[in-house]
Amino acid sequence: MGPGTGLADHIRAESTRLAAVCTSCGACVRACPMVAYAPGVADADAVAVVTGVLDVLRDGPGTPEALAWIGGCTRSAVCTPVCPEPMDPAMMMRLANMRARGALGGGAQIPVKQDPGWSARVKAFARLTMTEEEQAKWL
Predict the structure, then answer these.
(1) The domain containing residue 50 runs over which residues?
(2) What pTM, to 2 d.p., does this model score?
């Protein structure tokens, strides 16, 4: 990210890059431990699920199975070592999750859990790893 570039621009650029690199082989879906817990994903074609995730990365609606997988992702990163492409499928899922929850201004495609204490907890955990200078800048 260069000077003057916002987080939303970075999310868009990285989404575009990952969507271009991914070949939709489905290896990430087949390796994912959460497939069994995401409605409809276990019975869906792995290639079709990944294609739906790529659609979300490109501002599309995705598919019900792709949205279920995005929502069920626990960021285990089991998908990363099985990917045959020079990319990080865990990051692809993280970005798809942000987009599907409406982080770029669109409507949420998957439910957003309301948690009023979330921000305070994030700040508390951030303080554990940040210097005082970083805390002053970011918190």
Answers:
(1) 7-114
(2) 0.78
